[in-house]
Automatic annotation (TrEMBL), chains A, B:
Keyword Hydrolase: yes
Protein name: GDSL esterase/lipase At5g62930-like
Xref: InterPro entries: GDSL (IPR001087), Iah1-like (IPR045136), SGNH_hydro_sf (IPR036514)
Entry's family note: Belongs to the 'GDSL' lipolytic enzyme family.
Keyword Cell membrane found: no
Molecular function per GO: hydrolase activity, acting on ester bonds
Amino acid sequence: MSRPRFLLFGDSITEQGFRNGGWAAALAETYSRKADVLVRGYGGYNTRWALFLLDELFPPNSSMQITAATIFFGANDAALSGRTSERQYVPIEEFRSNLEKIVHQMKVSFPGVLIVLITPPPIDEDGRLEFARSQNKPIELPERTNENTGIYAKEVIYLAKELHLPYIDLWSKMQETEGWQKKFLRDGLHPTQEGNAVLHEEVVRVFSEANLRADEMPLDFPHHSKIDGNAPEKAFHIVI
Amino acid sequence: MSRPRFLLFGDSITEQGFRNGGWAAALAETYSRKADVLVRGYGGYNTRWALFLLDELFPPNSSMQITAATIFFGANDAALSGRTSERQYVPIEEFRSNLEKIVHQMKVSFPGVLIVLITPPPIDEDGRLEFARSQNKPIELPERTNENTGIYAKEVIYLAKELHLPYIDLWSKMQETEGWQKKFLRDGLHPTQEGNAVLHEEVVRVFSEANLRADEMPLDFPHHSKIDGNAPEKAFHIVI
């Protein structure tokens, strides 16, 4: 049963990774017959709350080995103090410290794991206002701003550089494309199928740069075309 | 990290389960934060070749527990002798015996596992001919017929009844819908997104009947709305 395992740890964008067109499903397809993709996503969670999960999710003496992991928080931590999602807000210094703790625990629990940090996506503030109206909970000011989320994104990058971890600057990457607001985000925050495709592509790129190239990883068993119908055991190196 | 694990064992229709709109991804989404879905699908494999995988995939003393598994072969075994996919053909008696061996090894390796047998889907013979033409490998007679695959489907059901295992009669289920040939099959054999949806729905139904109802299974951790922003530890039953 054993093959490399990829673990995706994060908030709702991770939790929803197996939805139609989702980035976790796409990753599982890219690494089909080569790696398993495990999703540990917790909608609405910030890094402060995520800390309560670590001992259970990543016990120090885990028998389960993880080859690569993504840590993808910040979208909730960056909710603005004094606005409607204030309870999710985490100050920037604490955000950084919490992320460091998550990285540390993963390293202890999964020796040799490749850890990739992902910044939160950009925020389409109009999209947030529209979404609130569509929920019959109109708000005057968005509960998150793109500028403030950008500060959290930068902090992810600072930390990644300091810890020599690969990272995905999703906040900047998405904004490179004109019309990113509606093209990549369905409610100003969560990715559309096209947004999921950007995320998938970035994860595959970073994994590949770290020597986890799908096309260089072996299939778990022979491709069926390699099996001789009259002597199938040969393909499995079985002497009969 | 531990939560119930669902294992999907089969041929290409299982291997492709994480493709866009695929049944494995849909199952992972249905059981989000409740169970992991592991795909062990091998395109082109028949049950004869699948036997060579058992000791490695399902070692008798596995430390990995599996809560539920699907066994989904037959589409290749039912290739016709004397036609273009002859090398995949497995006689019906051997097909049954091979399936029994797979069931047996799973039961030994994963005590208490819920095993669900899935019949092959129906065959749209015109779709197979069209597909061969589209690959510039035209054939005069389809390499699989719906009637013959139906015999293999029936055998799956006989075995399931004899072993008191739940089963999904995908062969019959798909044919209940008018236009199933193009609606549910993209090349006369592999399911379209709508065909994948039928499969997903059937698996969820059978799992639910066996007391694996997603809505009755606990979330792995509290929903974020249950977390008190001022005292988050309470939601995690942690005394500080």
